[in-house]
Automatic annotation (TrEMBL):
Keywords: Cell membrane, Disulfide bond, Glycoprotein, Membrane, Receptor, Signal-anchor, Transmembrane, Transmembrane helix
Coiled coil (residue ranges): none
Name of the molecule in the record: Transferrin receptor protein 2
One annotated Gene Ontology cellular component of this protein: external side of plasma membrane
Taxonomic source organism: Albula goreensis
Amino acid sequence: MDTVQTLLKGQHSPSPSHHPCSIYRQQAQRSSLSEVVEEERGESPQVEMKLHPESQEDLNFGLSSDIIALFFQHSGNRRKAVFYLTLISLLIFTIAFLLGYVAFRGSCQYCGDTNRGLVPVDDTAGYDYSSHGSVMYLGELKDMLRKYLKEEQIESTVRRVSRSPHPPGSSEGSALASEILQKFRQLHMDHTWTDSHYATLQFPSRTQRNSLWIVDANDEVVEEIPLGSPMDYCAYSATGTATGGVVYVNYGRQEDFDLLRSLGVSMGGAVAVVRVGGGVSFAEKVWHAQRAGLGGVLIYPDPADVPQDPRRLGLYSSAAISEHVHLGSGDPFTPGFPSFNHTQFPPTQSSGLPVIPAQPISANIASKLLSQLTGPGCPRGWQGRLPYVRCALGPGLSSGEGRRVRMGVYNTMRPVLLNNIFASIEGKIEPDQYIIMGAQRDSWGPGAAKAGVGTAILLELARTFSTMVENGFLPRRSLLFVSWDAGDFGSVGATEWLEGYLSMLHLKAVAYFSLDKAIFGDDILSAYTSPLLVDLIEGVIKQVEHPKHSGRTIFSHAESMGSNWKSQIVKPLYLNSGAYSFTAFGGVPAMELRFTEDSRPYPFVNTQFDTADKLQEMLQGRLGALGRSLGELVGLMVLRLAHDNILPLDVTCYSGTALHFSSQLNKYSSELQARGLSPQWVFSARGDYNRAAETLRQAILNSDIQDERMTRLYNTRIMRVEYYFLSQYVSAVETPFRHVLHGRGEHTLSALTEHLSLLRSNPHLFDEARFRRQLALLTWTLQGAANALSGDVWNIDNTF
């Protein structure tokens, strides 16, 4: 295998891409490991390798020559000689064929279509052995998984979990944690334990309720507007009062505020009324409002964004949707640090905490306020379905001269003991590598869709895999099942655990699958995912039948909707996802799957109406079937990760992202050159990464993956790819989401691209010093990823 190490010092040419995260693969596999081409640098080094002193053909030919000579020396019958020669040749061919077939099955089970990624799946490939010593192939294990998954248990667990609200620190929450721990223990897992943290959470005040008033020009209260349930609140809101006019800001996206500025709407000190949805979280809405100079934010669900069933609309109009407003995850008072009991970090707080108050309100209250607005009319597309006469932007109120709105938020902080519940099935060959499945357990309301479904699927997957082990399945890698605490506060339990083990996660965690918010509908599957896992999801959606459309796979259903399956299913990770922190903060490939229904979205998440009955009504009784389908999707991906010798993660994906950015830089080449800026460094780093990824892929395809030493080396490099893209040049405390592609901050590719666009849209706002720093941070991170992926730290050919 030293020859394979030698090969890794060579480099391959980059592949083209049609999408930022597409994978460009070669159309034909190279005929030999000896072909190494460096197209980008114009070099053509060749490495000639000979794996054995004599090939099998050489040995066969030598043997045949001796036999032929001996035969002709002792035989006088030429016809007889030909007969025996033919017989001997057939015998040699048959033996060689059988030996080759056995070797191929044993060592080249992934040497299929090289266009299908790093390690194409082979259901007949098997290394797992049952307790009786018989081989269990991947196809058999898939059948076993489908056999043991039960939809009945999923529905019953959802009902049991969502009987009542169970926030962190409550008696109901503690009882549910004990119940799940007991469930794990009954499954005879190899290990079961609890991981505890003290975190600072925010709750409604027990002595003073949040309030909303209309006041006159003298600040005298004209009318008090009741807010409904005291549990309707935005965790981590700033506390205190805000008084001002009212401005309608649509969904509170950045483009919405930009449009308001262009229309000349006065926003300074006003209170924003903003709709739920629009693809942005509550935290992002408040952050944009704060940057625009607004003094407070009221967030409501517009009936235009929910089903048109009159009964449901009536119920929805009285509901307020609660969500946290911390622009981050984890305990905001220990940013970047774990909240373990023995740690005593200096007092600090997250920069993502808002400085203005925020409060959820119902559609009825929003209608009362917005119906009184004066000022410019709403832009096209901003009209909701509230019963007011004219859609105006504010900030004035027509109910009286000088009248304004005052909001008061009096939430309180308190430390709470959090308990994450863990159970694991130990791998038999690489037990220190984990495939993780997790779901949040807590909920402010009943939480059937928010927490109940995820918890139910988690327990069902744990039971299924445990039963498979009892029936002979021996996973190569360990499986880890986790019930997270304080998910409603911004994945606090999960993030604190990540912070505690950040230094080793890239060596231990293969991938993470979030089961949060898994079922909001019954038709469309969305996969919010790291690009490294796209090949995995593509493989399983071709094997799982759609729970609503009998006779169709999920893949064929997506294709039938008239567009490419990726545009239908694959979505980028987002801030409020349970998977986001694992990738953007921890550098672990992660995915969150979700069934939705565009025409009838589930309207009650994060409300007091999120019950099992409401969810079943929405799904027309298919809760169990949908839960089973989602469990099967996750289970099949976990099965491949736990079974395959080489991890099926696509390390070449980010080559496409880098190539796409390079093309963006090319568009601005004249503007950059005029300022003395050169994109050559980025091009060089992109080329180095592309060659390193392709070299690793080719090395794996041409290696004996039954060699455990080489397999371990390859898998170690594959597991670290996501971690390589965490910028080493920013602080994990000040900028926790350090991933240059999925993170948040000045160091990210999105921030750099946005800044680059100013060269043409607003050249006077372009900051050359800032751009140079951004470009340097991205370039060095990409070059570092290339160097690390090459696996050869003694021979880094760096063109900088």
